[in-house]
Amino acid sequence: MLSKENPENRTLIVNHGGIPPLVQLLSYPDSRIQEHAVTALLNLSIDETNKKLISKEESIPAIIEILHNGNIDAKENSAAALFSLSMLDENKESIGSLNGIPPLIDLLRNGTIRGKKDAITALFNLCFSEQNVRLAIEAVIVAPLFQDGTPKNKECSVAVLHRLSTHNSNLMLAALQYGVYEHLVEIAESWTDRGQRKAKSILQLMSKTEQIP
């Protein structure tokens, strides 16, 4: 709670050695303690310097383990923590290599509205890495992209699909098989400027690959 909203508290906690014991608690055999530990680290990671310190403590494997096996609140905050830590380029490929993408896709498929948002934003950030684009495709990301509820989440899904499809034209056919064409047309015609740009770009890519008229 101290780390939630007060930047000064975040600095004090870190300066007094708070990160290592919090990382240790990520592996404590109690789901509520794991949840509180990952949430505290998420809050601390808002500070850019703290992102590096948290990463140096080898926290990512334990956060991914909670994403696999924690309670739903812990999973959601683990996804948000991975998004925050993946702002550092060196962490993007580490998260992918440590099998962090499949549980994010599972949360996208089965989480709450908030969980889906946390998952899709983390996946968007991770897919700036070409390695992670391949891993996301292998983990069957396309199907759940447009089954995640809110307009904001769907708009973010368009951004993820855009990033994936620019790396892999074969993905277009899979996307069409999962019925995304109608969603893309709707977004291209009536949503925010950002969503419209991404949707129109994907439709153009589909047309160039002769997978739509």
Summarize the structure in words:
The longest helix has 17 residues, at 151-167. The model has no long low-confidence stretch (mean pLDDT 88). The radius of gyration is 18 Å and the shape is elongated. The protein is mainly α and 213 residues long. It is built from 16 helices and no strands. The termini are far apart.
Summarize this entry quickly:
77% of the residues lie in helices and 0% in strands. The relative contact order is 0.08. It has 16 helices and no strands.
Outline the secondary-structure elements.
Layout: H1 2-5, H2 7-15, H3 19-25, H4 31-44, H5 48-56, H6 60-69, H7 72-85, H8 89-97, H9 101-110, H10 113-126, H11 130-138, H12 142-145, H13 151-167, H14 171-177, H15 180-190, H16 193-208
Helix pairs in contact: 3-4, 4-7, 6-7, 7-10, 9-10, 10-13, 13-16, 15-16
Pfam family, one: Arm
InterPro entries: ARM-like, ARM-type_fold, Armadillo
ARM repeats: 17-59, 58-100
